[in-house]
Design brief:
Elements lengths: L10 E5 L3 H13 L3 E5 L2 H11 L3 E4 L8 H9 L8 E6 L4 H10 L3 E4 L4 H15 L1
Parallel strand pairs: 1-2, 1-3, 3-4, 4-5
Helix pairs in contact: 2-3
């Protein structure tokens, strides 16, 4: 992956109840130049998104407190959350799961393990649209 050089619009929030997965992805994105923050529950992710105001949110779906679907809806219900890139990163890959992601307001539905080149492409597209 290429390093991010634009200093604006590079905040990314990673939300996953698997701490190792969240921290690893946040670290990998940080190494490519993004500012990252990791949260480990849906509720914490929603609260962090409101204060951090990331350009993009990578959100797991299967979390114990509230699902990623619910978290996405809560984020989309805010004025600032309507413009964020919200990516579902999950082990749920059935057509029904993808449909639920779309209905909840996710922009993209990716399967675990993360395809870093694909995620990088999506993030760069979002950055370009904000420039």
């Amino acid at each position: 992956m290429e390093t991010v050089t634009n200093s604006e619009n590079r905040r990314i929030l990673v939300v996953d109840d698997n701490r190792d997965a969240a921290d690893t992805l946040a670290m990998m994105l940080k190494l490519t130049g993004y500012e990252t923050k990791a949260c480990y529950s849906g509720r914490d992710g929603v609260a962090a998104a409101e204060s951090y105001r990331p350009m993009a949110i990578v959100l797991d779906i299967g979390m114990p407190d509230i699902t990623g679907y619910e978290a996405c809806r809560l984020i989309r219900d805010t004025a600032w959350g309507q413009s964020a890139l919200i990516v579902a990163l999950t082990g749920y890959g059935a057509d029904e799961d993808r449909q639920k992601s779309t209905e909840a307001g996710f922009d993209v539905h990716l399967l675990k393990p993360v395809d870093l080149p694909e995620l990088s492409r999506l993030l760069k597209e979002k950055q370009s649209s904000l420039a």
